[in-house]
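Standup notes
- HV: blocked on the assembly model, inputs below
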Amino acid sequence: MFNYQTTLGQAEFENPIFTASGCAGSGKELSQFFELSQLGAVVTKSIMLKARSGRATPRMAETPSGMLNSIGLQGPGIDLFLENDVPWLRDQGATIVVSIAGESVEDYAVLARKIRAVPGISALEVNISCPNVENRGQVFACHPETARAAIQAVRRNIGGELPIIAKLTPDVTSIVEIAQEVVAAGADSLALINTVLGMVIDTNTMRPKLAGKTGGLSGPAIRPIAVRAIYQVHAAMPHVKILGMGGVASGQDAFELILAGASAVSIGTATFGNPMAAMKVKEELRNELVEHGFDSLREAVGYAHRSEGNL
Amino acid sequence: MGINSSAKQVLAEIVSNKKVGAYHHMVFAVGDLANSSKPGNFVAISVGGESSQLVLRRAFAIYRTFDRGQSVGLLEIVVAPHGAGSTWLANQQPGSKIDLIAPLGTAFGIPTEPVRALLVGGGYGSAPLFGLSEVLKNRGCRVDMVLGASTAMKIYAPLDGKRSVSSLTITTEDGSTGKTGKVTDAMREIIEANEIDIIYSCGPMGMLEAINDIAEEFNLMHQCSIEESMACGIGVCMTCVLPIKGEDGVIRMLRSCIDGPVVAGENVIWKAKRTIPEGTWGA
């Protein structure tokens, strides 16, 4: 009997296929296509303290094997989210990972306090790496000090139970250094990777295509960056569980991230092209693992790191 | 009722693909989802094939659907090949299978009383208006239509579509067919002569804005099918938003795929399109 279960921190999941924050809303739209309880977890769109309109349009540009987005964290704010979306997801029988994003360290502390007492949440993703904020200096995960401060604020306010997943950007000199900081600050596991900062210039208008000028690049174009980041971090801290993401559209893609060191895999941009993408990957990854002779997902995690002598 | 509760994802065979002027008229065998499609709904189509570098679906207004019984439903669209995705689709031959999701989004509101409707389309934006015209005619409405484009090749007005309207006026900017000028140059006269009650429109955003100005001038209801670049078409990505005023008077950045594509023109903050107007919820 193949064992597909996985863990991130103390949280246990029936299977390793999650949605990626920002690529599935709060699940309602996708529930028209499949039962959300089939996912390892629904990772909800990063929610902020207050309602947020997001950025002006155009917010999107398709790129070779990917897309650039500059949504700017549009959302209803934490209070309406906890009132409407979390109970709805619970009713669906979904496993819930809530993603939060703050503009200040204090925001993260307040968000953590609001979520602490809410039942039915399996883990908290702390997004400290959204590239689509007005001030790049606000990308907490770009600096060890700010990354540490944001995670500490959550750790001190969340209580002991809820596992913290810190979501990091690959747009740094050393992602291992940032990863070590946030783990020291209390993160139980890591979400790797957020989108990569990019730009497209429209050759007709001869100006940046996005209203926000820069945007986050996602899709298969960034998968090698995700594989590299996961591999580096897993090599440095093999005991820290990683939720991998970045351009996964097939079971083979997911397998690559697992081999690099991911214990679970989020499906992001692929869902935009195919609402059933996560279900497809779930099925294909399982087949991929069985075909390669693994009896469980866990055995395959980080398998690319084995020493030369091993098969 | 869930979001897009009648939408289905199917692998649909291309039944026919014919070049019409600058466009391609394509017909897909979609099964019973044809029953649930209403004029104004759209279809999101996967393009480029398995190994494509095009990762996003393309959205097309549904031209019309046919339910031929025994679940042999047909769905028709009009494709303007201008980018890599639409060009790929226009080059697909009958017999090929295409991954599509439909019906998506809002439909044109149909009045309960017989009214006098003016339908205005720009370029291939005329496509969803012919199906709408059929429905309105069956409700006893008078339907006048104005179609405009830059040039004759870009007017989409098939013969059987023309039969569904009481009058058809064509405008082209280069004068290659019909009246020289824009749709808005032809509208006032028709509105006054035929005592129009409601305007329906589909086309580029600039055109819709100009039509909305005329609707306001004559104090007419205006239902328009808007467009913003979309990534997913099913409401998850939040890229296709525009500022729209709700019944509570609050402006929100709403998704044109879920809260549209058909919206009441009077609620769109046209002057602020592509921006976040002051006072928008969450701004």
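- HV (later): unblocked. Chain A touches chain B through 46 residues (CB under 8 Å). The two ends of chain A are 23 Å apart (CA to CA).
- Next: hand off to the docking folks.
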